[in-house]
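Intended use. Records like the one below are meant for learning the mapping from a protein sequence to its folded structure. Do not use them to infer anything beyond what is encoded.
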Amino acid sequence: MEFALDQTGDIYLDARGNFATIDGIAAVAQRVWVRLNMHAGSWAFDVTAGVDYRGEVLGKGRNLSVIAALMKTQILLTPGVLRLRSFSLSLDPDTRVLAVEFVAETAAGLLQGLPPEEDTSALVLVPLMFKSGASVVWPAMMGGGIL
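Structure written out for the chain above:
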């Protein structure tokens, strides 16, 4: 069981003001999201966690194959992820938004990562929502206090 985070990475409190917790596939989804939105070397306890945004991603003329490899590596290094079934990455040159989509096999089932239905790109580096089957597993129902 882990503390739940909201779409900005802050600890999420439930409707009563208590720390919300998650487990299973929702926890794996949250771990993937954290790794993809962390700058490489920014966490002292695991300097391999995170993406080298400053060196390899941000800026003009970046190599999408290199960026895809960095993202895939972070997904595969996430505890609970067993393997990637599919992965795609695209960059909209007008909006400069990087879209990541993937399907991963996890110990808790299949996890699909896709761009969110609402624009959260101003909040995080890699906006993602996660589904398992037809259900959204992360971020959870943040507005209603149900997690």
